[in-house]
Amino acid sequence: MKSFIVNKNIMRYEIGNPIDTDAVVNKGSKEVESSIPFFEVQIKDEIRLNLVMGKNNKIYGLGQNIRGINKRGWIYESFCSDDPNHSPDKKSLYGAHNFFIVDGCEKFGVYIDFASKITYDVGYIKKDELNVTIDGKDANIYIITGSGLREITKKFLDIIGKGYVPPKWAFGYLQSRWSYPTGNEVERIANEFIERKIPCDGICLDLDYMEDFKDFTLSEERFPNFKGLVQRLKDKGIKIIPIIDAGVKIEKDYKVYEEGIKNSYFTLDKEGKPFVGAVWPGKVHFPDFLNKDARLWFGMQYKSLIEMGVEGFWNDMNEPAIFYSENGIDKAYKKIDELKKQELNIHTFFQLKDSVNNINNSIDDYKSMYHNTEKGIVNHYNVHNIYGYNMTKSASEGFNKIDNNKRFLLFSRASAIGAHRYGGIWTGDNSSWWEHLIMNIKMLPSINMCGFIYSGADTCGFGSNVDSELATRWNQFSIFAPLYRNHAGRGTRNQEPFAFDIETEEIIRNTIKFRYAMIPYLYSEYMKSINSSDMLIAPLCFEYDDKHASQVEDQLLVGDSLMIAPIYEPNKRGRYVYLPEDMLLWKVKDYNNKILEVINKGHNYIDVNIDEFCVFIRKNKIFVHGEAAQSTEKLNNKTLNLIAFVENKAEYNLYDDDGISKDYKKDKKSNLKIIITVENEKYNIKIENTGNNEVKKLNVTIVTAYGKEIKEIVNI
Ligand code: GLC
Predict the structure, then answer these.
(1) CA-to-CA distance for 324 and 451, rounded, in angstroms?
(2) Which CATH number does 526-715 carry?
């Protein structure tokens, strides 16, 4: 094992000869003598880390996974999995996010940079032990020390590099469904949003826009004049966001297939022939995203759609999902033939059932696929977790070549740390269940810890049928997630905001309008998180070091100024909220109508009607918002509204930039610094404006610690 100093708080331990995943941008080069602290370490065919946890130790992190914010009490696996049943007994979902923090007398972070399976037994087999098993002999392990949870996370986010920045329109509402089957239907949906005055910035296209599910093709029959459709909707402020799947259909004369074969850009089987799997298009080959040339080649395929005016994509089935392989099918048929010759009894029945049930996403298939990398041939199993990551990178590399200074929207299903620099993620095929709304609430901060700030779940749920109350409550939560997309699975009930009744439509309209009004704040906070390597959505205990805060997993901090307390149970018209300090409550019904109330520190019961949701403004913080608009490009932020809850001094830096280019990296950005002080019932508002800010007027509402409300207009 070699040990390296990354910086004064971070050490890297290199065991064996690890694959370079490119997840970390600062790996450190100064070699020193040291061994992995905190853990008992065993290195054999696999690497094991063992730690005895104190009774009250908490474990945070592991990104996209099930259960709570504190991960203690379960076994988790890091192995990108195409599994639409996110039941509480699952161990892994679509992402491989190997960063966690041990919060005990000593607090430290651990990042395991490894491209295959890792198992985390967090007090499951033995309730006070943390056992990590890395399925291989070669890995990089980072130990990050620091005084608090937030600080450790920031240090980690710093070494993995700045996160992906989408265009500003990607903070608008996105509507999706598997599928809007024709161009006409897409246009009808777009018009519904416009006519009903429900803000919307994008419609996602699922598989049916393609011809026979072939990537980068268009169905002439269902989507004639695709370019015209893209343009017409763009003129109305709505972008078209097509899906791209990992598998490339095997079909003679299909350009992408032919080019891939000609240049050997597909993954291989044991015999060195292109690996054959089956996904939506039927039999496919998988682009070898771990090969530099293949990755760029695939990335450049996006060009045909970009030339038609497309500015955003979602990448799917990139764990990769394999419904079956020829090998798997042969094995299943053989087993069935064998079983046919035997008497059908309870044992043979289950063997028969399992022979088909276990055919998809089988480890055998992953182990019989190979990548042709710069470092030689690599078995897929050993790099499984970075396949989806490299599909995201592929698209991003393509975008950079196609239009270097433009920001494209990109989000993926499979991911690993490192991919956060190239795109966002959505959390895959959840269901329209209340249980999945609370899972969504608890998952987002852990995903933030692992660098994926542009993330969100399928709002209203993907599988199953949603009811109007769940749809309402889910929207009331999702407005705080950077990726705010409503997506539904095939055969499920429609769940657009207008798919229910007039009353529900009105509530969801108001909710989405609040989101649009909040975009100046959300975007500002997003960009500040990226630029300062921080989280956007955090658990309470990352900010408040008190024993109650660490027990609260159903309230979240959104940016620096807000705390939210969503409703996530049916028929609930209120809830208990824990306040670590006095806060200002804005119970939002209609964002134009502000009724503000100071709520005291401690446990409080708050009534929350179905048409309301709670926004808490933290003490000595300022919340900035504008007016809603039909789409982000129509937002007019010349006049902004400020709500400041000030005991003595509150300060806010409102970041902005052009929202479409990468010029912000060249310092083309603006900052409006607002400082509000209150002393003996006297107040002072100070504004410093740097850069080219469009803000001309501020409607300021100051609420003092005693609940006195002051209104002031400031012209800039
Ligand atoms: C996968 C995706 C889902 C999509 C479907 C069809 O299940 O996770 O979002 O709608 O495939 O493309």
Answers:
(1) 33
(2) 2.60.40.4040
